[in-house]
Design brief:
This protein has 239 residues and is of the alpha/beta class. The protein has a single domain (4-238), classed as Alpha/Beta hydrolase fold, catalytic domain (Rossmann fold). The protein is 39% helix and 14% strand. It contains 9 helices and 6 strands. It has a 6-stranded parallel beta sheet with strand order 2-1-3-4-5-6, with helices on both faces. Helix 2 (75-86) links the parallel strand 3 and strand 4 (91-97). InterPro entries: AB_hydrolase_1, AB_hydrolase_fold, AB_hydrolase_sf. This is Pimeloyl-ACP methyl ester carboxylesterase. Residues 4-231 form the AB hydrolase-1 domain. Pfam families: Abhydrolase_6.
Length: 239
């Protein structure tokens, strides 16, 4: 079976995918931690999306993974788009989840520059908890909030600022019309980070892209409604 690669978003980590392990078709799953985040919080973060993409591809090569299905969430969805651009023959099927094609994040709960200034003022731990709350419909009352906030709190101020710079300096809009990888665009309809306009752009511009909208979920649908999320993704990857 084709391996599945999971790429988390800004201030995330591989452990946020625990509800997906073993539920996406029974094959090999590789959940990476981007430099600066999660289990790789001891590493410096990159300030370009292309840098993260090249790092993930090198990591997969080191693991002996040559061809794979790719799921990218949030900033990880930008990284996934870059991975397809850098190594188009490696990705069998692509899931762009809670993400967009513009790193400036138009319509986000706050601008990238506001996040930058607040991170410098409030510090990394307060920033981690504040931003993690926006990922859930019930915010800091959500069942999965504390676990996600704890992962986010591992991020250094360097990684936070580098990640924000990476997103603000990236766009993949011009590549969408020529993206030939079979793609599913997946979105929670209460997402505060990526509004419908970003999702619609991906869906309508990527040739033949499929669309799935999960109701009553914010930015972390894979944790708010994991059974539904897993069924949608498994169906796309196996049929």
């Amino acid at each position: 079976m084709t391996p599945v690669v999971l790429v988390h978003g800004f201030m995330g980590g591989s452990k946020q995918w625990h509800r997906q392990l073993g539920a996406l078709g029974g094959g090999e799953i590789h959940s990476v931690d981007l430099p600066g985040f999660g289990e790789n919080a001891h590493l410096d973060g990159f300030d370009t999306i292309a840098g993260y993409a090249a790092w993930v591809l090198a990591e997969l090569e080191a693991r002996g993974v040559a061809q794979f299905h790719l799921i990218g969430h949030s900033m990880g969805g930008m990284v996934a788009q870059e991975m397809v651009s850098q190594s188009p023959g490696s990705v069998a099927r692509l899931v762009l989840y809670g993400t967009g094609a513009q790193g400036v994040l138009p319509g986000r709960f706050e601008t990238i520059e506001t996040s930058r200034q607040r991170a410098l003022t409030d510090g990394p731990n307060a920033t981690a908890r504040r931003i993690a709350a926006t990922w859930f419909r019930m915010q800091d009352k959500a069942d999965a909030y504390e676990a996600c906030a704890a992962i986010a709190e591992r991020s250094s101020i360097q990684a936070i600022l580098a990640g924000l710079d990476a997103m603000s300096g990236w766009t993949g809009v011009t590549r969408l019309p020529v993206l030939s990888t079979r793609t599913l665009v997946l979105w929670g309809d209460r997402d505060r980070t990526y509004p419908w306009t970003q999702t619609e752009k991906l869906w309508r511009t990527i040739p033949g892209a499929s669309l799935a909208v999960i109701p009553d979920c914010a930015h972390a649908a894979h944790l708010e409604k994991p059974e539904l999320f897993n069924q949608i993704v498994k169906d796309f990857l196996t049929n």
